[in-house]
Amino acid sequence: MTMNFPTINLVATGQNIVRLRKAAGLSVKDLQDIFGFATPQAIYKWQKGTAMPTIDNLVMLAMVFRVKMDDIIVVDAAADLMDVLMRSA
């Protein structure tokens, strides 16, 4: 039996970051200033889905956007793993 482990969908997560940033009325520059980054490159990478924020940056994004981290991260195949775990319990 093959198991599908959950994976983070980077592109969909990036789209969530863009959507939540805009909903909060923030620019990329605003986030850059909040995080104290010298350049906005990390934020652009998050938004494009080419990089994932670190856990501490995810916590900060959740606080800034006033959402749970689960509202930012998009996980694929989690249901498949849960089905397997529930059947084996």
Question: Keywords, please?
Answer:
89 residues, mainly alpha, 434 Repressor (Amino-terminal Domain), two-stranded antiparallel ribbon
Describe the protein.
With 89 residues, this protein is mainly alpha-helical. It has a single domain (9-88), classed as 434 Repressor (Amino-terminal Domain), CATH 1.10.260.40. Helix content is 58%, strand content 4%. It has helices at residues 10-23, 28-35, 41-48, 55-65, 78-88, and strands at residues 7-8, 75-76. A two-stranded antiparallel ribbon has the order 1-2. The longest helix is centred in the first third of the chain and has 14 residues, at 10-23.
What is the assigned CATH homologous superfamily? lambda repressor-like DNA-binding domains
Order of helices and strands: EHHHHEH
Which structural class is indicated by helix and strand composition?
mainly alpha
Structural domain tally: 1
With helices defined by DSSP (H or I, 4 residues minimum), what is the helix count? 5
Question: Which of globular, elongated, flat, extended, rod-shaped describes the shape?
Answer: elongated
Number of strands: 2
What fraction of the residues are assigned to beta strands by DSSP?
Answer: under 5%
- Gyration radius (Cα, Å) is 15 Å
Which CATH class?
Answer: Mainly Alpha
Mean pLDDT: 89
CATH architecture: Orthogonal Bundle
Q: How would you sum up the major sheet?
A: 2 strands, antiparallel
What portion of residues is helical? 55-70%
Poorly predicted tracts of residues = none
Distance between the termini: 16 Å
